[in-house]
Amino acid sequence: MLVEATKLHADGYALVVYDPPAKGLPWLAVCLGPEGRLIAAAASSTAEAARSKVADLLVELDIKPLINDRPVH
């Protein structure tokens, strides 16, 4: 089940937080590249931690967020 809608970013990256796929499994923070290629994924024990990891990935990968469909520099 998708917890948060895909967040599209400049250059076509998508960052997504998924809830645990089954009981006892972790939340998933996922970064997909412009062609749907998996760039990074991380497991987290809470939704908050997964959202934090998505924010960290923005910085680590130097992905520019979109605001009102325009890149933020």
What is the string of helix and strand elements?
Answer: EEEEHEE
Given the structure, what is the number of helices?
1
Largest sheet: 4 strands, antiparallel
Based on DSSP secondary structure assignment, what is the total number of beta strands? 6
Counting helices, strands and paired strands, the structural category is alpha+beta
Unreliable runs:
none
Question: What would you say this structure looks like, in words?
Answer:
The protein has one domain (7-65). 19% of the residues lie in helices and 33% in strands. The model has no long low-confidence stretch (mean pLDDT 79). The protein has a four-stranded antiparallel beta sheet, with helices on one face. A two-stranded antiparallel sheet has the order 5-6. The protein is α+β, with helices and mostly antiparallel strands.
